[in-house]
Structures are given as structure tokens and as C-alpha cells.
Design goal:
5 strands; 449 residues; 4 domains; Helicase, Ruva Protein, domain 3; 5-stranded parallel sheet; Rossmann fold; elongated; 6% strand
């Protein structure tokens, strides 16, 4: 039995997350305010079907309707094992035609055989055809008193409003990495398997908000480790994850404009049989973390050593440069996602050409560098000193402009309107910037007399 199946919650007390939906349903059961149709929507692996089974169990438990099921009566056991005659799970992806819905409508009129309620759990309900939705409308609006419909979908935007208006709608949120890591920790402790705390972080991140997917990945890594202690090294090897040092060196090469090092990294990954799609996706995750760390925002998925190394790296980067790189690679990742049938060699060619283009763009001045240049021009004009044209690369942090000294003593200050002076200064700055060179003699006369 897989860990995802073994540790599937069996009642409201075992649920992880989805507190708002769980509390609403518990109150409805306790106060006997039971609806005739529910619609659960959210991403995959966030507990929609699990919640539907718990609700069906709560409705049909011998102590029910109750929010505290016994899990020992025949109804609870039959529902948990999926053999209850009165709780029917229907996959709308394979039963989407109007004939299937007509058959369902013919069955709902019959009373339950053993339980209190006949519960229909329709998974992936958005797969029904328009004709099927129309045929279901009347039944959803006025079902028999002994019938409860529970619809589940990952794409609520495909559900007609005529359907959603007849249901109580509950949104299921994705789990964050911290919640997933805590659940994985509980499972490992129950299984009696030693582990490193840092080993859970990559699994939680790779789950992408899906607790079920994360538990399946944990199962996979445990099979790879062969029952030994779960370490960060085994997780990375089992999930084919590159070490963080690879991304650190890659970003450093970007900062240095070292095209040879970048292309060599891509070559090493492909020679080792690595997946460039996964590499690019994880690189985006690393760049995101680097941007957040540069803003002193804590990233849960980073270990202490990784966070320290990333904080040191962020000191040598301009935030505008990081965002620009991220946007460039994010667009490339979108192109990758549309090339589902592309060969690995084709992806490599595209990635290498994009890296050449990116390195060239990194040589162009960034927004912060241009602003710094204008400020130096203005300082040179107002102070009467020679313009210091020290260019800054896109990857280097912008230097703080020095305080602008007064061009004249207060007693000799020109009596011109500030708006006129600002306009004249702006015009001079623009001309100087276009010429990219300003040379003023040290003893030149004041500009505004």
C-alpha cells in the first residue's frame, strides 16, 4: 500500500489544511443544515475527494449525521473501503455522456439500501458535456431528500453558472511548502524512518502545493534509499535534482557574463542525462529565491547554508538585473512547455542560443545604471567638475550617488526661477547624455548667471 493511500485522512480530525471548508461542513452536520449539492474545487491533490468521502461517512455513520464519525460501524468501514452500495463515485471523464446522466437520474429516485443517504461523488465534473449538464440541472435543483451530490473539479471555470448556483461551493487551497513538510515529517515518524530535516524541503517544493503528489514523491525517494535514513543527497539523487551549487555557479557565470561556463554547464547536464525542462524550472525557482533573499525575505525551502550562500550572492546583483533575467528565462520556460514533442537536442539548442542572447543583453546598461549615469551628469553640471563616466554593468549593484555640492555660495546664488533652472538643467542633461560625454573645465563659469 502506498503512503498516500495509507495515510489518507479518515475523519475531520485527521484533515490537513482546508480549515474553512472543514469547519463549514462540520457546523452543517452538527446543526443538521445539510445541503443537497456541494461543489469542491481546487488544484489536484489538495483533498477534494478525501473531503467528499469524509462527508459521505459523516452522513451515513450510525451515530450521524455527525462531524465525529466512529470509523468502526459497517457503513464507515464500507465507505472507507470503497464498497458501499449507497456511496457511488463516478468519474466524469469516462462517464460524461448524456446517457450516463439519464441513467443516474433514473437511479436517484430509489431509496438507499443500507445507509441514511445515497451519496453521489462526481469527480472531474467539468468533463461532462453541455447536454449532460443540462440533463443534470433539474435533479441538482430538486433531488430526493435521501440524495446528496458532491461534485469535484480542478477547473471550476468550465462549470456552467446554472450548476454552481445550485450547489454550495467550497474552494480548496494549495498547501504551502511548510505544511507539506510538516505532514511528511509526521508520516516518517509514524513509519519509524530516520530523516534529515533538510531532505524534506526539496520534496515539499516539488509537490507544488499538492500534498498527495508530495507524499508520492516521498514514497519514491524511500524506495530509492532502500529503507535507510532519508538524506538530502538521496532525495536529490532519487528525484533527479541537481545540487544547489550547480545553480549557484550558473548564476555567478551569468553575473560575470561567462558564456563558456554557462554552455559548459548545459553540456554537463545533457551528458549526464539530465532533463533540461526540470533544470530550467528549478533555475527559475532559484532565481525567485535569490530575488526574495535580496529583499531580506525568508524562503522556507532554503537550508541555512543555502540561504547564507544566496544572501552573499545577492550582494553582487542589481535587483533590476535579476528580474530582467527571470523574465527572459520565464518566457523561455513557457516556450519549452509548448514544445511537448521536442527532442532533448532541440531544447538544448534553444537554451544555448537564448543564453548567448541573454549574455549580450546583460552587457547593456540596466535601468539603475542609466539613472546613476544621469545623476552623475547632473552632479557634474551643477558642481562644474569633470564628468566621471564610470560605466556600471547590469549585474553590479548601483552605486549610491554622492551628495551634490552647491555650485555657488549662498550670497552669490543666481536669482532665477526654480522651474526655469530645472528646465535648463534638464535640457543640458539630455544633450550631454545623448553625446555620452561631458567635459567641463574645473574653473568654468557658473551655468546660470
Amino acid at each position: 500500500m502506498s503512503l498516500a493511500t495509507k495515510y489518507r485522512p479518515q475523519d475531520f480530525n485527521e484533515l490537513v489544511g482546508q480549515l474553512a471548508a472543514a469547519q463549514s461542513l462540520k457546523n452543517a452536520l452538527d446543526y443538521k443544515k445539510i445541503g443537497h449539492a456541494y461543489l469542491f474545487h481546487g488544484a489536484r491533490g489538495v483533498g477534494k475527494t478525501t473531503m467528499a468521502r469524509i462527508l459521505a461517512k459523516s452522513l451515513n455513520c450510525v451515530n450521524g449525521p455527525t462531524s465525529t464519525v466512529c470509523n468502526t460501524c459497517e457503513n464507515c468501514i464500507a465507505i472507507a473501503e470503497g464498497r458501499s452500495m449507497d456511496v457511488l463515485e463516478i468519474d466524469a471523464a469516462s462517464n460524461r455522456g448524456i446517457d450516463n446522466v439519464r441513467e443516474l437520474r433514473a437511479q436517484v429516485v430509489f431509496a438507499p439500501m443500507q445507509s441514511r443517504y445515497k451519496v453521489y461523488i462526481i469527480d472531474e465534473v467539468h468533463m461532462l458535456t453541455n447536454e449532460s449538464f443540462n440533463a443534470l440541472l433539474k435533479t441538482l435543483e430538486e433531488p430526493p431528500n435521501h440524495v446528496v451530490f458532491i461534485l469535484a473539479t480542478t477547473e471550476i471555470h468550465k462549470i456552467p453558472e446554472t450548476i454552481t448556483s445550485r450547489c454550495q461551493v467550497y474552494a480548496f487551497k494549495k498547501f504551502n511548502a511548510k505544511e507539506i513538510a510538516e505532514r511528511l515529517q509526521q508520516i516518517l515518524e509514524k513509519e519509524g524512518i530516520p530523516y534529515e530535516n533538510e531532505a524534506l524541503l526539496p520534496i515539499a517544493e516539488r509537490g507544488e502545493g499538492s500534498l498527495r503528489d508530495a507524499i508520492s514523491l516521498l514514497d519514491q525517494t524511500l524506495a530509492f534509499s532502500g529503507g535507510n535514513a532519508l538524506t538530502l543527497r538521496e532525495v536529490r539523487e532519487g528525484l533527479d535534482l541537481l545540487p544547489s551549487e550547480t545553480y549557484l555557479k550558473f548564476v555567478q557565470a551569468l553575473n560575470a557574463g561567462d558564456l563558456h561556463a554557462l554552455l559548459n554547464t548545459v553540456h554537463e547536464i545533457t551528458q549526464a542525462g539530465g532533463n533540461l525542462r526540470i533544470f530550467l524550472r528549478d533555475l527559475l525557482t532559484y532565481l525567485r529565491a535569490l530575488v526574495l533573499v535580496s529583499e531580506s525575505i525568508e524562503v522556507f525551502s532554503l537550508s541555512k547554508s543555502e540561504s547564507a550562500a544566496m544572501a552573499e550572492l545577492a550582494k553582487h546583483w542589481d535587483r533590476h538585473a535579476l528580474i530582467r533575467i527571470f523574465q527572459h528565462l520565464f518566457k523561455l520556460n513557457q516556450d519549452f512547455s509548448q514544445m511537448l514533442s521536442a527532442k532533448s537536442s532541440e531544447l538544448r539548442i534553444l537554451l544555448e542560443i537564448q543564453l548567448v542572447d541573454l549574455v549580450e543583453k546583460l552587457k547593456e546598461p540596466s535601468v539603475s545604471a542609466l539613472v546613476s549615469k544621469i545623476e552623475r551628469l547632473q552632479s557634474a553640471i551643477e558642481s562644474g567638475k569633470a564628468y566621471d563616466d564610470r560605466e556600471q554593468s547590469m549585474g553590479s549593484p548601483p552605486a549610491k550617488p554622492a551628495a551634490i555640492p552647491s555650485a555657488l555660495p549662498p550670497s552669490q546664488a543666481p536669482e532665477t526661477k526654480s522651474s526655469d533652472s530645472a528646465a535648463d538643467a534638464s535640457e543640458i542633461i539630455q544633450k550631454a547624455f545623448l553625446a555620452e560625454e561631458v567635459t567641463l573645465p574645473p574653473e568654468s563659469k557658473p551655468l546660470f548667471e
